[in-house]
Specification:
Strand content: under 5%
Radius of gyration: 18 Å
Shape: elongated
Oligomer: single chain
Number of helices: 5
Number of strands: 0
Distance between the termini: 23 Å
Length: about 120
């Protein structure tokens, strides 16, 4: 007798949590760069960082994807909080760690695409 598959059933449609996370993350990268020359961008950057963090928690919970990297992704939000508490370098910490997370996200995406495109091993 074979065991039932433990893979989750593929879901159709768009995962709104993942979409919100991706859009907020990319917009935050752009606005983070602007916050050094446009004062209004700092508040929008901060709001988007919070949206990205909340959607990351949702995405991790929804898909049972709790990994160390997801917890480390909360460092940018900590930087935003430090920035609003008066340590201006907190915003730079948030922006630098956001870039690290973004590069990691792209790298993992490329790894995933390469793994999917490899032919199965021949017996």
């Amino acid at each position: 007798m074979s065991e039932p598959s433990t893979d989750p059933t593929p879901q159709s449609g768009i995962d709104l949590g993942a979409l919100a996370h991706a859009i907020a993350g990319i917009a935050a990268v752009v606005l983070g760069g602007l916050m050094y020359s446009r004062p209004w961008a700092q508040d929008f950057f901060s709001i988007l960082m919070i949206v990205a963090a909340v959607s990351a928690v949702y995405f991790s919970w929804r898909h049972s994807a709790w990994v160390t990297g997801h917890w480390l992704a909360m460092v940018p939000v900590t930087g935003v909080i430090l920035g609003y508490l008066g340590w201006q370098w907190g915003f730079t910490l948030a922006y630098v760690t956001l870039w690290i997370a973004f590069i990691h996200f792209v790298y993992r995406g490329v790894q995933s695409l390469r793994a999917e495109s490899k032919p199965p091993p021949q017996p």
